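Pair request: fold both.
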Amino acid sequence: MFPLTVVGRDKTIPKAALAIIVINLVVFLWELSVDAQGEGFLKAALQNYGLEVCKIGEQSIAATGLDGFRSLFLHASAAHLLGNMWFLFLFGGLVERYLGSVKFLLAYLGFGAVATLAHVAFGNTACTVTDTGVVIGASGAIAGVMGGFLMLRPKAKVKTLLGFFRPFVWSVNVPAFLFLGYWLLMDVLQQVGWIGVETDVAHWAHIGGFVAGLGFIFFAGCIKPLPKPDPLEHLAE
């Protein structure tokens, strides 16, 4: 299941979300330049600038926090980057409009921090001489944005790609609570090993970030009322 668009998606420009996307793209261009220097250069750079779980406690809290912050803007591949940025673009606009750009940016970083803590606490990283458990990627923070979107518009329709038929693509409008709920369920099932194969995906980071987004918007709703659904939303299909 891959999201193509959100029906009736807010057309205002999400300045903070777009700024995050641009920063991630610029950082990835830097990664490509490092990779072009030769074999092993990029891996060394990611270990240097990303968060190494197995080395937590060997450096100051400030240094660990800085590594965790930088890791939110590093990606392992173009597919890793583009997938994350697409999800942020689709689901970030509404959350930013509700919170405001500055609060959205702070919340995004907070979701990323919670996601990283969840991975560190529950990820069961196997530390070896060659593997120090480097954590990189924005997916934990973006999972928080997705959780926030679910709290704000659970019945929003997500146009979702399911397969390549008819004869080109087969898509269907899925309620956000089903699409995002399925996404979270797959992470949980993969984390416990019930489906899929072993990968380097930090499922606990996704789960932690998503729950953080749900909780944050839930409590924010006690201060600022959550937006009411648009009764004419179906006209945007």
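--- second member of the pair ---
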Amino acid sequence: MSGRTIIAFDFGTKSIGAAIGQEITRTARALTSFKAKDGIPDWSQIEKIIKEWQPDLVIVGLPLNMDGSYQQVTNQARKFANRLHGRFGVQIELHDERLSTVEARANLFDSGGFRALDKGKVDSASAVIILESWLEKI
């Protein structure tokens, strides 16, 4: 097993959560979330995270319907992933993110009640779940 550094993004049209993890420890932690307009973030903020952490791999959560079919936001997430690769030359993998937000909300509520359910915290916690789920499969 290698010791790659991995960033995961929980894509959303209004907010994009980010998490960082290590392949060798199979752990992840929340970084931050970015506001987005129709799925387009402030790319300078994304660039700052990429430069700071210099990931070997970037995981982008792929939003699917419960039956595995695509929805409108699925294509937007793919476009976001393609732009990440094009702008920063990072290796990208898409990963099924079904129910990651539900799980993130439940975890945050359990640890801090309603006050913990800040949108930015939910998005970055969802990115942690996406990354940990990916790490479990390798």
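Observation on the second member. The chain has one domain: 5-136.
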